[in-house]
Amino acid sequence: MSRMNWKSDKPSPKYQQIIDFIKEKIANGEWPIGSKIPSQRQLAKIFEVNRSTVITALEELMADGLLEGKMGKGTVVINNTWTLLATTPPPDWSKHVRSGLHKPSQTRVQEINEAESNVNLIHLSKGELSPEMFPLDTMKKIMRDVSESMEAFGYEEPKGYLPLREELSHYLKTIGIQASPSSVLIVSGALQALQLISVGLLQRESTILLERPSYLYSLHVFQSAGMKLSGLSIDQKGLVPQAISKAKTQRGKAIVYTNPCFHNPTGILMTENRRQEVLEICRKEQLPLIEDDIYRELWIDTPPPPPLKTMDKNGHVLYVGSLSKTLSPGLRIGWIVGPDPVIERLSDIKMQTDYGSSSLSQRVAAQWLKSGHYQEHLEMVREQLKIRRNLVIEALERNLKGLATWEEPKGGFFIWLKIKPTLSMKSLYTKALSCGILLNPGNIYAQELDRYLRLSYAYASLTDLKNSIYQLGQIIKELVKTN
Q1: pLDDT for 407-461, tens place per residue?
Q2: 20, 32, 331, 454: least surrounded by Cβ within 10 Å?
């Protein structure tokens, strides 16, 4: 062990300071698994306490599964926060396919996915930017720039194209996240990030604690890997922290997932104080956390609070981002930021899965970031989203006042609409579809939420948005009359 420097101004008890110090050393990788920690006598001297205080701290760390006393070897690091979750080898993807473990989408979700290819429908719930906002000219220019400097390329490094990871490292600093390129893994969109985490870090039958409702209930990405989803309450400030404490989970077999910026499907923005509370509870409960921040840059009024990852001092948070919502889903470029050992593990699983994301897409994404065109594009997108959101809010006030309730979102794509009259949501969905309007009913995001709709102001044209909301109001009135 190298010489240690320790200084703390914290008012917490000395034994707790020892616990926090040792956890930080382990999480940062300074004390790797298998290494021997300083003796009780040395720790007592460093922290200026008696040995009984040191023993109290070590006993708690042993109970948490991080340390173990070994005969003739002293006290040894046997786990970190993430390896507590990964005590079994990851399942083989091909085995999943052969055995049919991957759960199919709900029938209604399958219908929606199929209908989304119908260009004659108005897609009033689609979570994607309108083709009208696709920066075609800039994309052509960047493609030309990339092709002119192109050389033969093969498989990239397991973590992804280094210049892209370097550009992402610079970009992440602008939102307060300090991450070296070695801490970044390039993935084929945020969904692949979640798949890698589910098979690479989590034991079967682990519990995923997440907001309810959540778009993940419609995907089965975790359930197919043998995980259980446990819904947590959400209010207008975001995920309710007390719900995490109340959740009954087995230590080392649970993880928290949150979508804090412009949550899908509710559009809620988690407040800064709430983020601090959630992270503190996760730290206290030793729960790793996945922060899915794919909508962060789609703010309309003011920038959102800093990511939870910016407050993470002990490697508890895996941060997930993507270009799919902000630029183009067709690039299939996303990223995971986390402790180096975790990123190494996930990059190995990714290489087993697809041998890396598209080399061409990675070079194009790197050029978007390097050239400054990405930030210019985001400014245009925010302006357009503001116009679209305001138009939809006005249309809702005009056509659904008294029939539904909603909150005005501060960014993202979605308005979470609650239908006030009691009516058949299946009939509403079917009638709207017969009128050429495709809707996402709320019960695909949580079965008990049967009087909700997820509306999107991002995809359909302005004319279609206005006309379809008028039609939606007429359909609801008609169904109320026939009830």
Answers
A1: 999 999 999 999 999 999 999 999 999 999 999 999 999 888 889 999 999 999 9
A2: 32
Output the pTM of the full model.
Answer: 0.80
Helices 136-148 and 359-371: crossing angle, nearest 10°?
110
Rounded Cα distance between 470 and 449, Å, is 23
At 68, the amino acid letter reads E
- What three-state secondary structure class fits 185? strand
Per DSSP bridges, beta strands 207-211 and 228-232 are parallel
Interval 32-47: pLDDT, tens: 888 889 999 999 988 8
Distances (CA, A) of 251 to 21, 81, 159, 476: 21, 10, 29, 47
For residue 355, what are the contacts with CB-CB under 8 A and spacing of at least 6? 155
How many angstroms separate the CA atoms of 303 and 389, rounded? 16
Which 3 state secondary structure label does DSSP give 76? strand
Tokens read off for 37: 């920690």
Q: Cα 315 from chain centroid? A: 16
Vertex 174 angle, CA 322 and 241, to 5°: 70
Q: What integer pLDDT is reported at residue 11 of this predicted model?
A: 65
Dig out the tokens for 191 from the structure. 């969904």
Residue 6 structure tokens:
């320790």
pLDDT tens column, 347-367: 999 998 888 889 999 999 999
CA 164 to CA 155: how far, in whole Å?
14
Average pLDDT, the chain: 89
Angle between helical axes of 14-27 and 40-47 (0-180°, round to 10):
110
Query: What is the Cα–Cα distance from 360 to 82, expressed in whole angstroms?
Result: 32
**In the numeric block, which tokens belong to residue 73?**
């070897």
DSSP state of 436: T
